[in-house]
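Anyone opening a protein record will find just a pair of labelled lines. With that in mind, the following record should read easily:
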Amino acid sequence: MRTFFALVLLTTLVPRAEAQTVAEKSSVPDAPRLSVRPTAVDVLLTVQAVAHTADMISSVYALTLSRDAHEANPMLSGFTDRPVGLVVASSAIDVLQAYTISKLQRRHPKWARVWAAALVGVEVWATANNIHAAGELQRRMQR
């Protein structure tokens, strides 16, 4: 008898709950849409910022592994012994470049896109180089 009442309750309550959630969903407003779509340069600068973060993480890791590691960028080579200074200086240069590219985009969108794409390429190459160098340093330490 209890099973019968449980089944009756379940069959009568489940359709109501489903109808209620459908009604609630229809009363929810649509998600707001972006009023300004990002440009290709905006997307490239975002990718470049992520790649720069990976570059900094891999640079600092390689520099802390061994005294044999050094910063190859001549503008930043003075920060080889100071990883925090390296990150601050490199990030400041990165922000300045991104700002310049975003301002350049208004008058010269093609040049801005080329410059942003070149920065992405450089950051990806630098990160790959850092990962390779860190691997070599680890192999030397194991010997």
